[in-house]
Amino acid sequence: MKFSIILLASIAFSAGAPVDSEKQSKAIDKRDIWEDVHVTKTITKKIPVPYPVEVEKHVKVPVPVPVPVEKKIPVIINQKVPVFIEKTVHVPVDRPVPVPYKVEKKVPVIHKEYIPVPKPYPVPVEKPYPVLVKEKVYVEKPVDVTVHIKQRKH
Question: Which of 1, 19, 42, 123 is deepest in the core (most CB within 10 A)?
């Protein structure tokens, strides 16, 4: 809308046609608004390809200190020695093992050790034998008692 008014005013001015003073003042005010717009510019710099790349080079430096070197001495064996190599062989199992499965293995015992265990054994006792009792014991027994009732005369 603003742009169209400015456009019409500029065309009318260039054509030489009379312009209303109100329209002209509005166009000038609106021109100030357009001047405040910030314009961003992007600057691109062209770099020629290929460009130089720094490469680090390792240079060997001689060391003045002598370094001990182990020399390998060949060893000649006159006899043939048998060497046993153990290999594990994987055997496929066609059925699953039932769980639980008890494995009994007998362990050889080299030295048997006897441990005394207290067991009851017979002891000769003289009969009757005296027994000391520290507490008093009351024994209740039924006793037959005859009761005589005397009669009185009043």
Answer: 19
Q: Which of helix, strand or coil describes residue 34?
A: helix
- Quote the Cα angle for 94-99-102, to 5°: 110
The answer to whether residue 135 sits within a structural domain is no
Residue keyed to tokens 């430096």: 61
Name the domain count of the chain: 1
Residue range(s) defining the domain that contains residue 14 = 2-35
Domain annotation covers residue 78:
no
What's the pLDDT tens digit per position in 30-45? 555 555 667 788 888 8
Asked if residue 22 belongs to a domain, the reply is yes
In this structure, the number of other CB atoms found within 10 A of the CB of residue 27 comes to 19
pLDDT digits (tens, 9 = 90+) for 70-111: 888 888 878 888 888 888 888 887 877 777 777 888 888 888
Q: Residue 23: which residues within 8 A CB-CB, separation 6 or more?
A: 5, 9
Report yes or no on 11 lying in a domain: yes
CB–CB of 26/5 below 8 Å? Answer: yes
Per the listing, tokens 């003289």 go with 126
